[in-house]
Amino acid sequence: MNTDFQDKYVWVTGAGQGIGYDTACAFHQAGAHVIGFDQQFTGDHYPFSCLVMDVSDPHQVAEVCQMQLVQQPHLDVLVNAAGILRIGATDELSFDDWQACLNVNAGGAFNLFSQTLPLFRQQGFGSIVTVASNSAHAPRLGMSAYGASKAALRSLCQTVGLEMAPYGVRCNIVSPGSTDTAMQRSLWHTPEAEQEMINGFPEQFKLGIPLKKIAQPREITNAILFLASDLASHIVLQDIVIDGGATLGA
């Protein structure tokens, strides 16, 4: 894919693992100056700069972001990829789990927007790509907190897209389905779990995956880089569902 991010400044939240990590690596490989944010970085090697930050804490986000912004001339790309999963029947979920999902998955993006939108507006260019979920498009049993938080995130980003488009700033969304990450694997408790996920769970009103495979992180990352690149210069307010057809295009 012809995406050139040479000397661009890119921020990626949730860069410690999963889709966020792969995204930060891909931007680095494409020549960008990448800052990855996460609560912790447990790996042995990260090819990009790492800053520890809890996206759900508005005061910490403000402090870390403002400190970083004075050290760089502009911000070209923001990727909101931080997210957590809490599962369980709605009446069995604790309020803390409910609140944590909202605070991280939707609140994290809001906190980043609070610090970066004034700069994007002032400079008159930039791209924002947010990682939501196909669970924002179709209900999933046991995922009321996660699905609600991702639906809130989706709505937030579409509103931000409307607000920022007149300033030449493009805001788009990717909504992955089942992807081979630590979060996904935390749901697999047997050797057959991956194939069962592909086949679907009719008793849970969950269809299988028509492409007959789980996504790899790079398949999500490729879409993120495309949306952030000049190849997508007239694309805004879009939500690309990347789930192998699991939601039948919903």
Task: Name its key features.
39% helix, Rossmann fold, 7-stranded parallel sheet, alpha/beta, 15% strand, single chain, 7 helices
Summarize the structure.
The protein has 250 residues and is of the alpha/beta class. The chain has helices spanning 18-29, 58-69, 95-123, 144-164, 182-185, 193-199, 217-228; strands at 9-13, 33-38, 49-52, 77-80, 126-131, 169-176, 239-242.
**CATH fold-level assignment:** Rossmann fold
Main sheet overview? 7 strands, parallel
* Helix-residue proportion: 25-40%
The CATH architecture term is 3-Layer(aba) Sandwich
- From the spread of the alpha carbons, the general shape counts as globular
Judged by helices, strands and strand pairing, the structural class is alpha/beta
> Which strand order does the major sheet show?
3-2-1-4-5-6-7
Strand residue content = 5-15%
Q: N-to-C SSE series? A: EHEEHEHEHEHHHE
Radius of gyration: 17 Å
Count of individual domains? 1
Could you characterize what this model shows?
By secondary structure, the protein is an alpha/beta fold. It has one domain: 3-Layer(aba) Sandwich (Rossmann fold), CATH 3.40.50.720. The chain contains seven helices and seven strands, in the order βαββαβαβαβαααβ. The protein has helices at 18-29, 58-69, 95-123, 144-164, 182-185, 193-199, 217-228; strands spanning 9-13, 33-38, 49-52, 77-80, 126-131, 169-176, 239-242. A seven-stranded parallel sheet has the order 3-2-1-4-5-6-7, sandwiched between helices. β1 (9-13), α1 and β2 form a beta-alpha-beta unit. α2 runs parallel beside α3 (95-123). The radius of gyration is 17 Å and the shape is globular. The two termini are 27 Å apart. The mean pLDDT is 92.
